[in-house]
Specification:
Length: about 375
């Protein structure tokens, strides 16, 4: 570990702090701690991971695809403590006497609190080991859960306390300890939608199981869907969306496909649709929609799948219900309102509790082979 600062050198204000890892010439260096006394050094650091309520429920039931999330994250955090000097270039290699990770699941805030504790007897502190352990534990939780929730947020990485060095430190937390999730307006909106996000195409088909044809405009009807479209109705999958960026991945595989070919109603550009949490409210031109499902179950492989060996809609398409209607045209803006509304469980074709996709293998469809 390292000291955070040293006091000024000759020619400087003797009370002014300066960075200890930069010498007088501005060159990075490792601090020489050879003259320091060996003392017992203790540190604690924290981190938090926020996730969708559906993901939290899966975590509590140990029902996520990769297994016991917290057990794996705890071991990863402890291992990271021991490898800190290999990850942070100017940290001193330390022989740790103790490292541990404690995690508290907070369903009411839909987050996991992480505290990493480290201890050694040596000439420099163990803050960086504690911070690294907490950070890697948080990253591991993300990795263990990302199959069902790519909109998780890692944050509040901070030193909580350190003792045994020249200066002890104790953080006075400025929150009530509730672990409230950061506002979606300042984090998720910036992460998933560019200022230029827009509607690229609006597509309609009279029935299900058909590729949709681009139109010059469509009318979104509240609690119904797109007027004249086969998927409209009083259910949670009234309108489907797919990003052009997802279609481009299929074009790169050699397919001659475009807007509507994956049976999506709205083709977007410049927004990470499948990275949004369930319940996200999206403004599509004058209309307002609410994200109700991510991905879908394909009961029969479509012609696209058998041509390319893959189909993008089951895992990267999203479904919404219409809250406020209006006429939508290509070129209309797409934006996030910052609202995330809790979603009820949907039966039928909705993918498992998280709203994530699942794909079932079966023989090709006997009819047109178009996406469902």
């Amino acid at each position: 570990m390292t000291e955070i600062h040293e006091r000024g050198t000759v020619g400087e204000d003797p009370g002014a702090p300066r960075l200890s890892h930069v010498d007088a010439a501005g060159t990075a260096r490792m601090v020489d701690v050879g003259d320091k006394s060996s003392t017992v050094r203790v540190a604690k650091a924290g981190a938090r991971v926020w996730m969708a309520p559906e993901t939290m429920a899966l975590l509590q039931r140990q029902a996520l695809p990769k297994g016991d999330v917290l057990a794996v994250a705890r071991i990863a955090g402890i291992m990271a403590c021991k490898r800190t000097a290999e990850l942070v270039p100017l940290c001193h290699p330390l022989s740790l006497d103790h490292a541990d990770i404690e995690m508290t699941v907070r369903p009411e805030q839909s987050c996991v609190d992480i505290v990493c504790s480290t201890r050694t007897e040596g000439r420099t502190g163990v803050e960086m080991e504690a911070i690294t352990g907490a950070s890697v534990a948080a990253i591991t939780i993300y990795d263990m859960c990302k199959a069902v929730d790519r909109a998780m947020i890692i944050g509040d990485i901070r030193l909580l306390e350190k003792t045994g060095g020249k200066e002890d430190y104790m953080r006075r937390e400025q929150t009530d300890g509730s672990g409230s999730r950061p506002e979606a307006t300042t984090l998720e909106a910036e992460a998933h939608a560019s200022p230029a996000a827009s509607v690229l195409s609006v597509n309609v088909s009279p029935g299900k199981g058909e590729r949709k044809k681009p139109k010059t405009s469509v009318t979104l009807v509240p609690e119904h869907g797109i007027e004249g479209d086969g998927h409209a109705g009083p259910w949670h999958r009234q309108v489907s969306l797919l990003a052009q960026e997802s279609i481009d991945t299929m074009v790169a595989k050699g397919l001659d496909v475009g807007a509507g070919d994956f049976a999506e109603n709205i083709t977007t550009l410049g927004i990470d649709l499948c990275g949004l949490p369930l319940g996200t409210r999206i403004r599509l031109g004058p209309a307002l929609v609410e994200l109700t499902q991510i991905g879908k179950v394909c009961h029969e492989r479509c012609a696209i799948y058998y041509q390319a060996g893959d189909c993008v809609m089951p895992r990267e398409g999203i479904f919404v219900r219409v809250i406020e209607g209006g006429e939508l045209r290509p070129g209309d803006p797409v934006s996030l309102t910052g609202e995330v509304v809790p979603q009820p469980a949907h039966g039928g074709e909705a993918a498992a509790d998280s709203g994530a996709f699942a794909v079932e293998a079966s023989a090709p469809a006997a009819d047109s082979g178009a996406p469902e």
